[in-house]
Design goal:
By secondary structure, the chain is α/β, with parallel strands linked by helices. The chain contains 10 helices and 10 strands.
């Protein structure tokens, strides 16, 4: 069963807002905004709306500019925008669609048409979201996969460059995992991976933090806007979360329970630098943690 979709209706006319809300409220959760600034604020909510119905003619920031800003922001770019306008010239519709809108409805409102188009676009979005989930989630553990890690690191790296903010990365390995697999068997090894993945995910609290399985027993965590001291706290929480699982490991030369080693780093990237720099630093710190005896984290970077 689908959760109720959220529609953001943006119009400077209270009458139009009332009509559209009445048309949609029985099937959807409806939020309203009377200007562009408020619309951009509500669109940035977590979770964001599933669809935006956007008036073109508004004082101050018009609908075209709102659409342009939504599409230029990585956090709101994927929200479908449907223009609702009294402007019915062909060039108006073409311009709206060229900005990234998916549809254009001409006023006056015809309730059955609005309902049908909104329903179709919500269905399309759900299909797209499902496909996105299938391609960005690790099938075994249910957390993000390497592809999602790479895409998110690149996006957050660019944002950190733009805003001159730190970005932290934690590289994580399960200690002596091959020995675990050899002793307990691959089915039990899979259960170990699932338990560790859930423990790592539970150790982060912000929606902007991303934990991914990058391959085998290798995991990583991206922490936007985080200094090395903040990342070290997360690493400590991750170690505690895995320890709390108390997974027996009879073949570990480090501990009688499953443990992890972590490499922690953070930096404020400069224009022209590559995110691989951050990965290399985290990997180097992870190597040091393993060389020092495992079941610990090592910090590199300011």
């Amino acid at each position: 069963m689908h959760t109720q979709a959220t529609i953001l209706v943006v119009d400077d006319s209270p009458d139009n807002l009332q009509v559209l809300t009445a048309v949609l409220k029985d099937q959807y959760r409806v939020k309203v905004a009377i200007n562009g600034e408020r619309a951009l604020s509500l669109a940035s909510d977590d979770p964001p709306p599933d669809l935006v119905l956007l008036d073109v003619m508004m004082p101050g920031m018009d609908g075209y500019e709102v659409c342009r800003r939504l599409k230029n922001n990585p956090k709101t770019a994927s929200i479908p925008v449907l223009f609702v306008s009294s402007r019915d010239e062909e060039e108006d519709e073409a311009y709206g669609l060229s900005l990234g809108a998916i549809d254009y409805i001409v006023k006056p409102i015809r309730p059955s048409i609005v309902q049908a188009r909104v329903r179709n676009h919500i269905d399309l979005k759900r299909s797209r979201d499902l496909l996105e989930r299938l391609t960005t989630v690790d099938h075994l553990t249910g957390i993000h996969n390497r592809r999602r890690f790479d895409d998110y690191l690149e996006a957050e790296w660019k944002r950190a460059v733009r805003e001159h903010e730190p970005i932290a990365l934690i590289a994580i390995d399960i200690d002596h995992f091959k020995a675990y697999n050899d002793h307990y068997g691959h089915p039990q090894g899979d259960q170990c991976l699932i338990a560790v993945a859930q423990a790592l995910s539970g150790a982060v609290t912000r929606s902007s933090d991303l934990v991914a399985r990058c391959g085998g027993e290798e995991f990583a965590c991206i922490l936007p806007g985080t200094t090395v001291s903040g990342a070290a706290l997360v690493a400590e929480q991750m170690m505690q979360a895995v320890a709390a699982c108390a997974l027996e490991h009879a073949r570990s030369t480090t501990h009688d329970r499953v443990t992890i080693s972590l490499g922690v780093t953070s930096m404020v990237p400069e224009p022209g630098q590559d995110p691989q720099t951050l990965i290399d630093q985290a990997d180097a710190a992870l190597y040091e943690a393993k060389a020092a005896g495992r079941n610990r984290f090592v910090v590199r970077g300011a």
